[in-house]
Amino acid sequence: MSSDRLIYLPLGGAGEIGMNCYVFGYGPEDKERLILVDLGVTFPDMDGSPGVDLIMPDISWLEQRKDRLEAIFITHAHEDHVGAVGHLYERLGAPVHARAFTANIARGKLAEYGLSDKVVRTTSAWPETVQAGPFSVGFLPISHSIPESSGLVIDTPAGRVIHTGDFKLDKSPIVGEAYDPDLWGSVAKDGVKALICDSTNVFTPVAGRSESSIGSEIEALVEEASGMVVATTFASNVARVKTLAEAGERAGRSICLMGRAMRRMIEASITTGVLSDFPKVVPVEDARSIPRENLMLLVTGSQGERRAASAQLANGKYNGITLKEGDLFLFSSKTIPGNERGVIRIMNQFSQMGVDVVDDSAGRYHVSGHANRPDLVEMHKLVHAEMVIPMHGEHRHLREHAKLAQSNGYTSTIAVNGTMLDLTGHAPKVCGFVETGRTYLDGSVKIGAMDGIVRDRIRMALNGHILVTLILDEDNEALGDPWCELRGLAETGTSNAPLVDCLEEDLSQFIGRADRKTMMDDDKLETALKKAVRQTAQSEIGKKPEVTVVISRLVA
Amino acid sequence: MSSDRLIYLPLGGAGEIGMNCYVFGYGPEDKERLILVDLGVTFPDMDGSPGVDLIMPDISWLEQRKDRLEAIFITHAHEDHVGAVGHLYERLGAPVHARAFTANIARGKLAEYGLSDKVVRTTSAWPETVQAGPFSVGFLPISHSIPESSGLVIDTPAGRVIHTGDFKLDKSPIVGEAYDPDLWGSVAKDGVKALICDSTNVFTPVAGRSESSIGSEIEALVEEASGMVVATTFASNVARVKTLAEAGERAGRSICLMGRAMRRMIEASITTGVLSDFPKVVPVEDARSIPRENLMLLVTGSQGERRAASAQLANGKYNGITLKEGDLFLFSSKTIPGNERGVIRIMNQFSQMGVDVVDDSAGRYHVSGHANRPDLVEMHKLVHAEMVIPMHGEHRHLREHAKLAQSNGYTSTIAVNGTMLDLTGHAPKVCGFVETGRTYLDGSVKIGAMDGIVRDRIRMALNGHILVTLILDEDNEALGDPWCELRGLAETGTSNAPLVDCLEEDLSQFIGRADRKTMMDDDKLETALKKAVRQTAQSEIGKKPEVTVVISRLVA
What we know:
Chain A is α/β, with parallel strands linked by helices.
């Protein structure tokens, strides 16, 4: 047994914030039995992944070893932790374990693929544990920004590992379990080999604030409002939704939830018992007839998502409701980097309607769900593990977190996606590198990020596209002139003649001059035509477009 | 003369931050003599303007009235104020007036189009004035984040207008003139009709800080550094570049400027006399042989621009210099909303190299160049104009600024791009709407934002592209099968057969079934083929691509 080892391998989430996917293994080298922690998604953008629907980790490595995979554990129900369960489950096939609320959400994801409820097994909180091969895994409650978030206590023959999941140190989180240092201390007291730890807020120098600290500010704001009040937050932040709803209720307003995700999360919370005293809500149909000063909407779309309720309201009308001068729109949220443009667009649309927009720029209406720098130090000390392995962060977060741990005397290292660490000894050792990447859900199919498909789309977006068709007869003579079609390009260039005419003229001249060898060889001819097209385009409009050439040869 | 009126018409910059372009007119209705204040650009992004090089205001309205245009005044040399002068000058043809430093930059822009130096006339600061038809215009020095920024004193027969340009209230701006309340007060003392006022920082509740307030923090940081120090800021912020260079010099480091814009701005500052005591700089060739602990680079690329020096250094090497573990990279800048992804990418690249990245998240290494809310109040009171017209802001900034002015007893209104205001009376009156928009520089040609060209590119990026070619003989019979080419689409869909085969098969079947009427009619046939392609693609890959159909008819 001395050759058995304990390994850690992030396939997603380490080197980025999103698509969390962490493998642990125990056993002889290359025969380790495996468990997976989290299987999340990240979101596409126009810059790098236009037209893509969702981004998830490339799990090829794990799929090739699925016979060694014992189980999948989901720490909490955020999309970046549970979002890929439906899309990737069939490639892995292991049972999924989660606490009740998370399990409810995971089952919904599987149902979209027609997969059975039974795939997901509901587990109670620590001290209950799940046996998974050589692993014994328990869900250790911790506060975050969604109900029932949990760290994982992962017991192995090589020792205990604690994987924090996403967490903050909140002793009064409104919904769900509070941070309980005694519980965490008791789990850690007999020694912990490794703490795998959330790095998101390592750059935030002050201690985090409790979810309960913003209730009175929100109440005061809603109390003062004279028109309709609309508030948006992350739909999964059930505590916040409750705080907002209670503020509305106290101000004598009827509460209406808008947006599928918002209703889904509240429903799951009530079904699973994590939420028991949510204010009464009115259906949308009734909301329309309630005077605006007596109404408060809680809506999806805090990140400016184009299809969410907030964007629809900003566009003018949603579910028969239109905002107007004197109404108030509250972003009880932060804008995730990269989403600024979308959020600002909505703010300006509301401004045009005369709606007052309030956001968290003064720090009054939102708190983060992640542990800040001093909170991380507290967690390091509480668990007092032999080593601290930063996860859930971009490279800069992981690096800063490792430095922080080291400065407090803990052994630490940076392990980005694909870095396999051997945790068996007293310090982490890099024991391999695995090729990782991203899988795109594109329409209904999955494609690789490096397949060149999305790269081609980006090129068309940057350069435009020119199509050339040419028909040749059996003697390799052109039948008629080459034909060009432009897409995404200026119609007229510097010569003031239509670009398409310039192109066809230049190509005709080229064909007229081309030797027999070129005319006989499709590849050669295509290359030459592309070059000619690019030259003409460059001189006419200063761009080198993407070019597709179709040569049709008629046979007698 | 009683029918003469004073008008104000923003063509850019009011309803956005960027591409400033403000028209003032005086005279009989529709015969007003005109002046233009600023002619700037804004920058494209993948979301809305992929492949575009620059965005500038649509000046069609002004171009159609160029015979009435007396002059163009440029308040300062930021790209969003002067950047379109080269690209649009020939469509307007009026003399350009600016102070020496701004004129130097403007001449450079014109030279790129082969336009004469003489187009730009250098003007001294107030009390010098330029006579332009019924207008007398003077440049009133004010502090900002570039040398020689000026407000404009615009005297008209209907009264005095003050256009602030971009400004902050900085009494020790390091480079250039300090904010001089006595000077501004003296100009305003006999009454001002309208204050056209910068709105950028209306949401920042505390008074702005002086450029001189961050020198000691920067010095301390550089002093402590042990490896190479690299700092980036906006190249045009000459005061900041000087502060950074002096911090390096005091720490015994040689200073090297990297990036064309950085060198261009320092050169223009020295040439025009606005900067006289800049530390000695070493050329890049010499920098390579200087020990890293004795070197400080000042580089372009504070916004993560892909081609700038900072991005090149992050990619590994630039001008023979490579950063490494223990070096320090300072962002002495703020990230403009929308640029977060690019900046974060660079930060993570540096993190991977072991370089410590310091930014302004703690507010120590950057100050804004714009007046904050209390500063705006001070300016309103100092000028004490009959009306305050907010400019240089998105709608939300203009609205907040108008409310702020009103709350202090000033008449105000929101005038976004295209809104013509009559300022003749005691309150602004909307007297017309002009169609405005954006002109894209795309390669070497200018296209309209609404021409559909960029829309087509975005569609290709989102949906991919399928090309169909079909050859018909003189009897309208297909010669061979339809041919499909994909670009930016998955090769295989749900049926596991190549998508291109599925498409060609379905199209062949369609052709086989098509009636003679369809086969004879190109439009009908094209529409039908597009529909068939989209249906097959939707069922195979869940996407509806852009489709180009080329039908070639052979004639006998």
